[in-house]
Design goal:
This protein is mainly α. It has a domain at 1-50. Helices cover 74% and strands 0% of the residues. It has helices spanning 3-14, 20-32, 34-51, 64-79, 92-142, 148-158, 166-178, 182-192, 199-211, 215-228, 234-242, 248-261. Helix 1 (3-14) runs parallel beside helix 6, helix 4 runs antiparallel to helix 5 and helix 9 (199-211) runs parallel beside helix 11 (234-242). The longest helix is centred in the middle third of the chain and has 51 residues, at 92-142.
Amino acid sequence: MKCKEVENNIVDYVDNQLSVEHSEIIKSHIESCAQCKIDYEETTKLLVEFNKETTQIPSAKLRSNFYDMLEEEKRLSESKVVTLQSDKGFNFKMAFQIAASFLLLFLGFYAGNYSSQKKTSEEIATLEQQTVELKENMMLAMIDNRSASKRIKAVNYSEEIKHLDQKILNVLVDRMHNDTNINVRLAAAEALAKYSETELVKKAFIEALTTETDPSLQITIIEFLVKIQDERALEPMQQLLDQPETPDFVKEHANTGILQII
């Protein structure tokens, strides 16, 4: 087995996603190759660090005082004797007084804890922003690594960021267009496909179809363009049909895609 093959499968190997036979082959190579052993150790450490991340959960103490006060008021209300005369109907005045008591209690609680709640909300928002920035920085630091497995991990890590900014989208587009490893290009295409409403992403896929020669990525791109129903995709799909070197199964996808868009 060559170093390139180990490089392309190192993440799956560390995650125990390969067959026993395949894992044994990679293990044997790593034991005999110093560079691949370094890549294996670095990837293992990286995955361990990713798995250490935990979600910050706000304290439940925020409303506990209110509920304690509410229970106390209910207890006091139940201790009072309220007589409902069947011939006079429901005592609306008493009901209104009880309701007003609860309302005043709630308003008092809200006023007393507003500043504390606001501070907690601000701290949570700050923490979330810091987490996003950390993920973006880690993704950008890994995306140009010489190891394809680490570049794939960087692309996959971008999927944990809820809202990708223009900078991250441009990086993923560059990986889809220019990465030397087909697995990295495929991973970038799959990550970008989640932002089908973004014009930058639409144009990137249309452009990729005019330059991409790998059949697996060509099919991925065609499926995305069919999904967004962009008529600008018709011309590059037709070009694929006209090119003799295009595999028959890719032409079949392109022809089907054209029929679904027009």
